[in-house]
Amino acid sequence: MILNRLVRVGIVFVAAVSVAVIIGESFDSPLVTAWVPSLFAMKANTAYGFLAAVAGLWILHACQSGSMWFRVARVLAIIVIVCGGLPLAEDLFGTNLGVDQLIPVASQHAPGAAYPARMSPGAAFSLLFIGLSLLVLKARRTKIAAWAHWLIVPPLLVATLGVIGYAYGVNVLYSLKSYTAMAALTAGSLLILGLSVLAADSAYGFANIAGSDTFGGLVSRRLLPTLPGLLFLLGWACLEGQITGSYDARFALALMVLLGITVCIVAVASTAITLHSVDLTRKRGETEILNLNAGLELRVQERTRELAQVSSQLTLVNTSLEKLSRHDGLTALAAVML
Question: pTM of the predicted model, to two decimals?
Fold first, then answer.
């Protein structure tokens, strides 16, 4: 199933990024630095939170509900909540709980670094809600389990803002101050992790609709994976053309609107054609079923008439037999009952 593959790929990606960050931050590995220098923009405590989140998500997705491993996953969810909640409390209340110094890293004592290991507020906020979502994911009570799909929405919004901010060069979307900026890799990992949590439980929420064979499921599978991505790429391409001086801001805006309208029309039209074809097939099936039912009703009526005729004939035969039993066949006189 597509949703299961999305969960597995997301878990592997975020886990690989987190392990690389932890190795690079803990040992100041030049191999990791040379591989992806931007990994060091993600803080080690954020990477540890991601690692606990993907471990809990893997257990919840792969193991049976009610098993001992499910309790382990709930403990990991609480760890994720703590990883996000404590730094967020520091930022909100202006306190210093010493959370940044709990995890020793090689870059923690870098000269001139005011907050060497401080997690960004956006990442802390997202980890808090991801942990809450994992805490109720696949719960035994239906009302509680359904909340997982609502709790994952805020991290998805924060991650989307960060990705758009980096792609479009809008710093305010991912950074309030110099030390509160969310790394590009952090925003991307949050987005992938949020989508993985959203797809992990197909019994509730949007994942249930996307995996169904209804018209809603068909529309969601066709439009949602493609339409936002295409609009994002179109906006980025128009902005890059404006930056390079190929055209001015008005032409870029007009081009974006034109291409956006075109993409929306094509997407909606193709989906409408597919839905129309599916609806015609459904109507043909309904017509065939109605014809079969009508044929069955006619056969039932014919059989009913035949049974009625047979019943009337049996009645006549029984009446004749009764008369014969009351008369003597030789004398044609009525038999005397003793």
Answer: 0.74
Q: Which residue is associated with the tokens 């994942």?
A: 207
CA 87 – CA 269 distance, rounded (Å): 47
Give the residue carrying structure tokens 């929420």. 205
Q: How many angstroms separate the CA atoms of 309 and 115, rounded?
A: 98
Contact 194, 163 (CB under 8 A): no
**CA distances to 114, 273, 281, 291, 294 from 287, in Å:** 73, 21, 10, 6, 10
Query: What's the confidence (pLDDT) of residue 332?
Result: 56
Question: In 3-state terms, what secondary structure has residue 336?
Answer: coil
Return all residues near 260 (Cβ < 8 A) that are at least 6 apart.
Answer: 231, 234
CA angle 180, 184, 185 (to 5 degrees): 115
Determine contact, residues 84/63, Cβ cutoff 8 Å. Answer: no
CA torsion 207-210-216-219 (nearest 10°) is 140
* Residue 338: predicted pLDDT: 44
Single-letter amino acid, residue 87: P
Q: Would you say the C-alpha torsion 142, 145, 150, 156 has a positive or negative sign?
A: negative
Q: Is 327 helix (H, G, I), strand (E, B) or coil?
A: strand
Looking at residue 331, what is its pLDDT?
Answer: 58
Residue with tokens 């359904």: 146
Distances from the Cα of 128 to the Cαs of 12, 46, 196, in angstroms? 21, 11, 16
Strand partners, 327: 334
The list of the chain residues with pLDDT below 70 reads 1, 26-41, 98-117, 176-180, 324, 326-338
Residues with Cβ within 8 Å of residue 335, at least 6 apart in sequence: 325, 326, 327, 328
Asked if 45 and 227 touch (Cβ cutoff 8 Å), the reply is no
